[in-house]
Amino acid sequence: MKRLNSQLQQDGAPLELILLIRTILAGCKEISFRVSQGALAGVLGSTLSENVQGETQKKLDVISNQILKDTLRESGYVKAISSEEEDTVVPCNPDGNYLVSFDPLDGSSNTEINSLIGTIFSITHAPQWMKPDDPSAFLQPGTQMVAAGYVLYGPSTMLAMTTGRGTHLYTLDKTHGGFLVTDSNIKVPEDTAEFAINASNQRHWEEPIQQYVKDLIAGSEGPREKDYNMRWVAAMVGDIHRVLCRGGIFAYPFDKRNPKMPGKLRLLYEANPMAFLMEQAGGLADTGQGRIMEVMPEEIHQRVPTLLGSKNEVLACLSYYK
Ligand code: AFP
């Protein structure tokens, strides 16, 4: 099986980017180990603190964030990082050539039930003019990403990653500690009969998504004329992994509850990296108003509505917005 380095070289990734990706993955391997220790290492449960988004932090959120922060700071490749668990950007090496954004532990509410969780990351070039503590350099649209991926801590530890030359799946071989390519250039099926949405929020949705989901649930007796199945992992990494592997549509749509929070998912740490992976696998990623990767961020913790997945199903969903 092909190793990570060979795949990245084949895809034309420059040496420094390869070294940076390997640094991120070294951190993820440590997170994978900590996660697998669970209650034995006393890492489950919440801390007494909240992150900048007002969410109670789990112990593993804090541990995972610290591991990635320390690893990236020491590497020298990175000028600054932004993390879902940090109030503002974290300055690193003033001469670093890259910026890294990450959600250190997506789906952390799943830690207590030993269910799917993961780390999501994206990488962009660091502008020359940028001061390491200047958040404005992170306000680039997703089209500027040079790499993005997630590591899924499931029954196997898996990596999905793209450098803009297709999306590849890797599995961590714990016998020698390397990620091996187990599926290259994956293609998301264009059609699907599976959707993922938190239906308990239905009363807060806008009209187009209300009608779309109503028609999916109507199944073969409704206008879509086929029966759909629903799945919800409550961790975007788990839901997107399923969609990448066998198709589907994942939606966290616009929500009328709080105008300052039009969607739950964060543009930099969740929506953009997943959109890059999805598009590189032939799927679509939209907010309902346009391509996710073209959204110009206004602040690092910005949230956006998300519709991602099988091409024809996302197009069908978008037709309700027209
Ligand atoms: P956490 O990282 O705070 O656990 O949130 C996970 C997440 O942002 C995303 O991964 C899920 O799709 C979504 O929240 C699930 O949220 P609800 O099930 O609460 O709607």
Automatic annotation (TrEMBL):
Annotated Mg(2+) 2 binding lies at: 103, 106, 270
Top EC class per UniProt?
A: hydrolase
Please name the Gene3D superfamilies in this protein's record: 3.40.190.80, Fructose-1,6-Bisphosphatase, subunit A, domain 1
Keyword list (alphabetical) reads: Carbohydrate metabolism, Cytoplasm, Hydrolase, Magnesium, Metal-binding
Task: List the PROSITE patterns.
Answer: FBPASE (PS00124)
Does Magnesium appear among the keywords?
A: yes
Name its pathway. Answer: Carbohydrate biosynthesis; Calvin cycle; Carbohydrate biosynthesis; gluconeogenesis
Supply the EC number(s).
3.1.3.11
The record's catalysed reaction(s) read: beta-D-fructose 1,6-bisphosphate + H2O = beta-D-fructose 6-phosphate + phosphate
Q: Which residues cross the membrane?
A: none
Q: Name one GO cellular component term.
A: cytosol
Q: Which cofactor does it need?
A: Mg(2+)
Question: Taking every annotated instance into account, which residue ranges of this chain make up the domain Fructose-1-6-bisphosphatase class I N-terminal?
Answer: 5-183
Record note on cofactor: Binds 2 magnesium ions per subunit.
Question: Which GO biological process entries does UniProt record here?
Answer: fructose 1,6-bisphosphate metabolic process; fructose 6-phosphate metabolic process; fructose metabolic process; gluconeogenesis; sucrose biosynthetic process
**What are the binding positions for substrate in this chain?**
106-109, 198, 264
Cellular compartment(s): Cytoplasm
Give GO terms: molecular function aspect only.
fructose 1,6-bisphosphate 1-phosphatase activity; magnesium ion binding
> Subunit structure of this entry?
Homotetramer.
Provide the family line.
Belongs to the FBPase class 1 family.
What protein name is recorded for this chain? Fructose-1,6-bisphosphatase class 1
